[in-house]
Amino acid sequence: MWTSDGDLLARVDKDKLPRHVAIIMDGNGRWANGRGLLRSAGHVAGVKTLKNILKTAVNLHLEALTVYAFSTENWKRPHTEVDFLMQLFSEYLEREKLEMHQNNVRIKFLGRTEDFAPALQKLMRESVELMKHNTGVKFNVAADYGGQDEIIRAAQKLARRVERGELSPENISITFFEDELDTAGQPPVDLMIRTSGEMRVSNFLLWQAAYAEFWFTDTPWPEFTPEEFVDALVDFGKRNRRFGAVNS
Ligand code: IPE
Ligand code: IPE
Ligand code: MG
Questions:
Q1: Number of domains in the chain
Q2: I need a surface site. Which of 54, 169, 221, 248 has the fewest CB within 10 A?
Q3: Please, what is the average pLDDT of the chain?
């Protein structure tokens, strides 16, 4: 089992933890290039970071962790990089799925899946199936994911229900809409972390981050540590979330 974050866990106040943390794992390529390595080496290093962060999320009993692995815009990258990322994604799932399962992780994929290779789609389905009864961290991997695409798919599903006469347009509420999103049944994002210095949302969880707190760091993803993850969580605990209201 993954339990070795002892001192680190002592730093967090359990009552002030976010329920749902989302991470834009950025900076793999720049990190590698800065070391005279290929961008692919940065992605390999990034997978190691992900494993450590997921482990910490498990040890902290976070409710949900969502990571941005591949965006709908990332298909614009050179074929060689896209192919490498797909290969790495497959290897990661194949290698890690059992250990995740043993740690009660429940994996889910956000995004489109139809443009992935059939073997990868199968592996994704098998991983979901393997972990579907687990009750620990909800680990969402956003792959071929775009917030705009997700919202459009949800709107299409609702439109079809209206077309079938099951729903009237006036009854479309926030809850109805959320039930059609890839994150249906999960809490909204409380904390959004982005590594590597960029301060933008890059089409990630546009709906779910409506009231998220943001935390940015210059650290590139391959160098992001459980310690810094806990820094972000501790900082979150100090935020004053008003949700549009005034402090009482
Ligand atoms: C994040 O790192 C990983 C993916 C987008 C798949 P990048 O590949 O974006 O690295 P930089 O931002 O170019 O350094
Ligand atoms: C966002 O990072 C996507 C992922 C981390 C998977 P990008 O590197 O693709 O975002 P931009 O292009 O800098 O906005
Ligand atoms: Mg990037």
A1: 1
A2: 248
A3: 97
